Amino acid sequence: MSNSLIEQEVSKRRTFAIISHPDAGKTTITEKVLLFGNALQKAGTVKGKKSGQHAKSDWMEMEKERGISVTTSVMQFPYRDSLVNLLDTPGHEDFSEDTYRTLTAVDSCLMVIDSAKGVEARTVKLMEVTRLRDTPIITFMNKIDRDIRDPIDLMDEVEDVLKIACAPITWPIGMGKELKGVYHILRDEVIMYNVGQGHMIQDSRVIKGINNPELDEALGDYAQELRDDMELVEGAANKFDYDLFMAGELTPVYFGTALGNFGVDHVLDGLCDWAPTPQSRVSDLRTVEPHDETFSGFVFKIQANMDPKHRDRIAFMRVCSGKYSKGMKMKHVRLNKDVSISDAVTFMAGDRTQTEEAYPGDIIGLHNHGTIQIGDTFTQGELLKFTGIPNFAPEMFRRIRLKDPLKQKQLQKGLIQLSEEGAVQVFRPQRSNDLIVGAVGVLQFDVVVHRLRTEYKVDAIYEGISVATARWVECADPRKLEEFKKKAWDNIALDGGDNLTYIAPTMVNLRLAQERYPDVVFRETREH
Ligand code: G4P
């Protein structure tokens, strides 16, 4: 395998996720982006909210009923000379853990903002997550076919609230029913908007030069307004700066309407021109460069029963270095075991195909028969482990109980599998036969009961339980750990991966335990 081939493939790739508040237009943009990638003949089948074409599983049925997206799907498509990998992030607040881990697998993010509403709560949270890795951000101000807020105000708000400088790349001309088009500041050209071309690639008139008299003829009074706006922007707004962008400190801003399929191509152009190619990754041994000759990757997501026909679990792996080829041998580092992988899959808008080869930045799906966990590293022999893919201590707890007590085994199996997937966390107190489910958001509880019923055929119900929090515990001194386990027995539990945890009925209890056992470390997150 020559290094230069890997370098070539790496330079083509852009792996990104969309971050936005629900309803800002993430699904619509995904559809249009795929339209450009010719991945879909006609945009409109991603979520299938209305079309009902994508009845993948009952779980996804539920997702549709609620109009939320709880899954992370991956789509690859070509655009210009690039190969773009788009990772869908769960939109609902309750699934922040999954979202967090998905954002560890991308190199840049597209932030979508509803231009009538501005910065919304969920966007603020997601931006906090991207900050942890200083991920470069591109911004799309969506819905300019509606009455939107003043563009300068919108950018001010982004700068104030999200603490990232804005550099406008395009600028709206008119809005709502009076939307005329956008001015591309860097290219010095006006791209005219055609209403009603949302389902196709816009065939737009382009007028070169802001002082071109053609503009006055085409735009009427808006031509002068645009020139005035640009004078203002020239004086007041930031200019695009590649280094600041790469440092996550400045975002290029585009205006458009995803529904009208207008402006989406400008963002894609920006993504191909500026967004980082697959970046290096930190491991416990060394920094892994994408063009390293040997293969490596990590699992950031596991999803069960994506397709009722297959009834399997898929582990989503981000390729970090080297090349995957069908049939290759990989080292499953945690188990220190060699495995032959011949049936990895790639994803296209919900469909999957066998992967022949994959390069850094690509996401491949491995069939998981219970041996793969979130955070697992695979290599071509080296015993290194990628870091930075955590579990978070849940904030809500319930005891889960069967309606039919004979199915205890299925319940355990289902819960353990769902916890491996990261859908929920499960704790087994040592002093009783209870099963405690812990979640970061309340909706997770509903999803789990629903999935237990449809996928594992067990009817379970919840009961309240007085647990305030859980901590993963560690102690360097085995003797002290044993003593702690004995004394704190009533509060000791094992999680889904058999890791030792301390279950605290109150925060005060936790604090007292921490004071009492100073040699024991109580962790709020657990690295997989
Ligand atoms: P999400 O995935 O971020 O939650 O948002 P989604 O794309 O589902 O969009 C939310 C709503 O906003 C949808 O309307 C969608 O049609 C609309 N929308 C998206 N982009 C634009 C845009 O550029 N302009 C306008 N005017 N609307 C836009 P809905 O009525 O909730 O759903 P639907 O019944 O139309 O599917």
UniProtKB/TrEMBL annotation:
It comes from Moritella marina ATCC 15381. It is found in: Cytoplasm. GTP binds at residues 20-27, 88-92. Increases the formation of ribosomal termination complexes and stimulates activities of RF-1 and RF-2. It binds guanine nucleotides and has strong preference for UGA stop codons. It may interact directly with the ribosome. The stimulation of RF-1 and RF-2 is significantly reduced by GTP and GDP, but not by GMP. Residues 11-279 form the Tr-type G domain. This is Peptide chain release factor 3. Gene3D superfamilies: P-loop containing nucleotide triphosphate hydrolases, Peptide chain release factor 3, domain III. Belongs to the TRAFAC class translation factor GTPase superfamily. Classic translation factor GTPase family. PrfC subfamily. One of its GO terms (biological process) is regulation of translational termination. InterPro entries: EF-G-like_DII, EFG_III/V, G_TR_CS, P-loop_NTPase, PrfC, RF3_C, RF3_dom_3_sf, RF3_GTP-bd. Keywords: Cytoplasm, GTP-binding, Nucleotide-binding, Protein biosynthesis. GO terms for cellular component: cytosol. One of its GO terms (molecular function) is GTPase activity.
